[in-house]
Amino acid sequence: MKHLLSTLDLSRADAIRILDIAEEMAAVGTRQVKKLPALRGRTVVNLFFEDSTRTRISFEAAAKRLSADVINFSAKGSSVSKGESLKDTAQTLQAIGADAVVIRHGASGAPARLAATDWIDAPVVNAGDGTHEHPTQALLDAFTLRTHWSALHGHTSSGSDLAGMRVAIVGDILHSRVARSNLWLLRTLGAEVTMVAPPTLLPHGSNVWPCTISFDLDATLATGVDAVMMLRVQGERMHDSFFPNTREYSRLWGFDDARLAALDATDSGETIIMHPGPMNRGLEISSAAADSPRSTVLAQVANGVAVRMAVLYLLLSGDQPRPAPSDAIRPAGL
């Protein structure tokens, strides 16, 4: 694996390998010494042209736990604000010896453009590009789903997929790179996906996507799902009116207290509620739902570190001979 740009590029075997290594990386968080020597001497650059909290901090934590040096680059306060191009920025990173670049960019396709050029000779990880994809978010969501699915069926997660799992992805599909990456990955892993949204928040061409399209959240929940993934309403990307008002949106497509109560009345706790964050509490999800025992919001954040550790480990190991993950992920100094 040279780059991670899209979940469409991942085969079932590739995806399961990442999730299996992430499972071993997650075990590191339970140890007294959490720092590993796997990437000692390597430099990871977080190149963020858009604001981020969870993704940037997660990648920074992942790289540091693997003993890599980390450089955090923000477009604000840099030469980008003076008009510096992506090419010049990339060549600067090449000159300082970056071994991997994690890039978030507002333009769809920017990470692929960076990876396809000779501007920088380093693995590129897409940390979100425009409304295109966010592959590591999909991987951490899949990791969370697999953990739940395995516990539900009483078997180990390692080596398993999501065959037979039913996942509803609800909300602003049109502007969501998370929805796209999750769709491709979840289908690769065998899950059944239903996209639920108002017609105005579905992309053109979504009718041919490998999923079921629904405009009715209550009807979808009534059919029975194993996980409900609520998406943030991305007001910053909306330049038109996509729904009458926030009250109407919340009533029809938000996971509110009433829907939580209805789920509790018919389901013993097997259905989980997910959200990639940040959340608009009271709009796409109520506080009661976000903080309920069904919620995996904080688990997703924790799992993100393990998944990104796995991705960086695989990318920076390259094609060189390396020990098995169970041998490589030992506390530094041991």
TrEMBL record:
L-aspartate binds at K82, R177, R232. Residues 2-146 form the Aspartate/ornithine carbamoyltransferase carbamoyl-P binding domain. GO terms for biological process: 'de novo' pyrimidine nucleobase biosynthetic process; 'de novo' UMP biosynthetic process; amino acid metabolic process. Pfam families: OTCace (PF00185), OTCace_N (PF02729). Keywords: Pyrimidine biosynthesis, Transferase. Residues 164-315 form the Aspartate/ornithine carbamoyltransferase Asp/Orn-binding domain. Its EC number is 2.1.3.2. Carbamoyl phosphate binds at R54, T55, R104, H134, Q137, G277, P278. It catalyses: carbamoyl phosphate + L-aspartate = N-carbamoyl-L-aspartate + phosphate + H(+). GO terms for molecular function: amino acid binding; aspartate carbamoyltransferase activity. One of its GO terms (cellular component) is cytosol. Belongs to the aspartate/ornithine carbamoyltransferase superfamily. ATCase family. PANTHER family: ASPARTATE CARBAMOYLTRANSFERASE, ORNITHINE CARBAMOYLTRANSFERASE, MITOCHONDRIAL. This is Aspartate carbamoyltransferase. The gene is pyrB.
